[in-house]
Amino acid sequence: MNTTANTATVYVPALDGTPLATDLCLPDTPGPHPAVVIRTPYGRTAHRAELCGWAAHGFAALAQDVRGRHCSPGPWHPYRDHEASDGAATVAWVRGQAWSGGGPVVAVGSSYAAHCALVTALGPPGDGRPDAVIAAVPALGLADTAREPAGPERLWARAGWWAAHGDRPDSAPDALARALAEDPRLLEHLPLTRLADRLGRALPSWPELWDACPRGRIVRRGSASRLPLLAVGGTRDPFAEDTVALWRGWGGPARLLLGPWGHRLTADRPAIAADRVNLGALYVRWARSALAGQLKPERRGVITLDGSGRWHGVRPGDATHGPADSSTRTTTWPFGAPTGLQLLHGADFTADPAHPVRSDDLAVPADGAPADRCLLLSPPLPRPLDLAGPATARLHAAADTPAADWAVRVTALDPAGRAEPLAFGIVRRTDPPGEAVEITVPLGTLGRRLPAGTRLRAEIAGHHFPAHARNPHTGENPVTATRLAPSRRAVSARGSALHLTVVARRRYVEPVPEICR
User: What are the tens digits of pLDDT across the range 450-469?
Assistant: First the structure.
């Protein structure tokens, strides 16, 4: 056993005997203690301050390097079944320690570590299953992280993650940035499966990523669980919809906290004081309530109204959960209507994968430039508007190619014309060439207050690169394709509209008490 300050390093045996490096921090008070288990591929030592925080509140706290990462030996295979068995072995080991006395265990994790916590919580009953689970910005599985629900590949995020963490025991967080500095067109080279050749190191699991089984496995399994769940996400996190789906489908007492955050659970802009939540304090309070059986057996949650300092209470039956109740309603912004979205240009446009619309640039083409997207703009809002729930674009449109992606980006323009992303969605379609069809593009769950004078700008395009792989329009798999072809598009105002969920009856709540009851 190695000891650093208040933290000791122990090696917990997996079922096959593999020693899993684990940092352990115990409270100063006599046990037995409830325990918190974090299993991560990102380095257990980064959690030492967090472990001390849990211990200060009476929890035995453990952070473990998953198999094949950092100080835990073995092969590193992301999202494989061994995460469930290794997690169960760790929870059982905790219960066998004198300081635990066989007491309750909470599985906790963010991103990949949330996957580890969830698959452990969804294991068979027994000493290896925890009593509650906290899953923050969950990366639910291989397929869930690789693709959007409607199919398009999440190229930028997966390339960055695999370059940094894939097929290696340590991490190089800036690996993709360094490769792009040497070759700015790195992600444009085809086929995408040969990305490893251009990164300069072996990456055998990269091609396998895109062959992953269908997404949604954890969400489906979660419907049978009766354990308490706290799902924490951000409206700016690419996995926000997976967080909402996990909460919506969970079978036990489920709480949702959806804040104004990205994947790192930090805000992209300075937060109003009332928007801030001490997540560490919330986790402790929620864990105590869950282990004491004090949570009502229902789904309950809160969603930020970013920009207002307010939080909106979410109940079963709200738009985030299903049909909207009396606290929210759906507003429709028809294309071409005076009070809706007016066409600026591009009712007919060309989606050319050789010159794709960029995901990292909010600028739009000047008038007179060849149309690479359909562009629409609303009149200024006459009064502030609170958005709290799902957004959707419904299009009446056609493509002249048998395979086509449809990307919709909605931007909020303040009275000075400054642009800020509001909503985004992308779907993949295989429709008869040239035939106008109805296309539904989910745009995620929004939580925002838009000030009076805000205009909404909508862009409809065929690509969103490099965030998403380019559809080649040839019918080939975008990951293995070696040829690209342009696609002519047409968007009809008739039958096309943007649908937003707005707050009709204020249900302001304090997030921490609401989550913990």
Answer: 999 999 999 999 999 999 99
Instruction: Return d(Cα 511, Cα 309) in angstroms, integer.
Output: 11
Q: Which tokens sit at 479? A: 């990951």
Name the helix (H) or strand (E) containing 396. Answer: strand 385-399
Task: Count how many Cα atoms sit within 13 Å of the Cα of residue 289 in the half-sphere of its side chain.
Answer: 23
Q: What are phi and psi of 18, to 5 degrees?
A: -60, 125
The pLDDT value recorded for residue 499 is 98
Kindly provide the residue ranges of all beta strands, DSSP E only, lying in 308-380, ordered along the sequence.
Answer: 310-314, 328-334, 342-345, 348-351, 374-377
Residue 152 tokens, joined = 């398009």
Widest Cα–Cα separation across the chain: 75
Answer whether 31's CB lies under 8 Å from 100's CB: yes
Q: Is the predicted pLDDT of residue 369 greater than 70, yes or no? A: yes
Q: Are 438 and 358 in contact (CB under 8 A)?
A: no
Which tokens belong to 309? 């300092």
Provide the pLDDT for residue 176. Answer: 95
Q: Is residue 243 within 8 Å of residue 256, measured between CB atoms?
A: yes
Written as six digits, the tokens of 373 are: 């997207």
Distance CA 408, CA 426 (A): 6
Strand partners, 445: 390
Dump pLDDT digits (tens) for 406-448: 999 999 999 998 999 999 999 999 999 999 999 999 999 999 9
323 band by pLDDT with thresholds 50, 70 and 90: very low
- The reported pLDDT for the residue numbered 197 is 86
β-pairing, 229-234 vs 254-259, is parallel
Three-class secondary structure of residue 143 per DSSP: helix
Tokens of 250: 């969970």
Query: What is the DSSP pairing of strand 455-461 with strand 487-503?
Result: unpaired
Which of 60-74, 110-124, 358-372, 466-480 bottoms out in mean pLDDT, i.e. has the lowest? 358-372
Which residue's structure tokens are 């992280």? 145
First to last CA, the chain: 40
pLDDT digits 0-9 by tens, 173-205: 999 999 999 999 999 999 999 988 888 888 999
Report strand pairing: 385-399 vs 487-503.
antiparallel
The beta strands (E) that lie in 400-472 are given as: 404-413, 419-429, 437-450, 455-461
* Residue 164 host element (H or E): helix 155-165
Looking at the DSSP assignment, which residues form a beta bridge with residue 395?
439
